[in-house]
Fold this sequence. Notes:
Layout: E1 3-7, E2 10-12, E3 18-25, E4 34-39, E5 46-51, E6 57-59, E7 67-72, E8 77-82, E9 91-97, E10 108-112
Parallel strand pairs: 2-10
Antiparallel strand pairs: 1-3, 3-8, 4-5, 4-9, 5-6, 7-8, 9-10
Amino acid sequence: QVQLVESGGGLVRPGGSLRLSCSASGIIISIYTMAWYRQAPGKLRGLVARITSGGKINYTDSVKGRFTISRDNANNAVYLQMNSLKPDDTAVYYCNSDPAFASWGQGTQVTVSS
């Protein structure tokens, strides 16, 4: 059974930084493309960043140059470093594979506000 646990969210001022972590169990992430998604209030969940098993990375345009996705296969973990945060980045952030497993974690809330 796949379990994904996200952590590291919080309240931060515009321009601030956060580092999100995702711990996976029930799968060996090294063989999967892993990704971070986010869902803002009233909006659909969307992909933010993805990293293939070979290390190829893609970002949605709105976070390019500000966010960095990485993976630690030895520890079955995925990370998202978020810098220069903006109010529009406010959302619940989730990690999953791409395409996503049916099971989602609880997500971690990121709120960017002054």
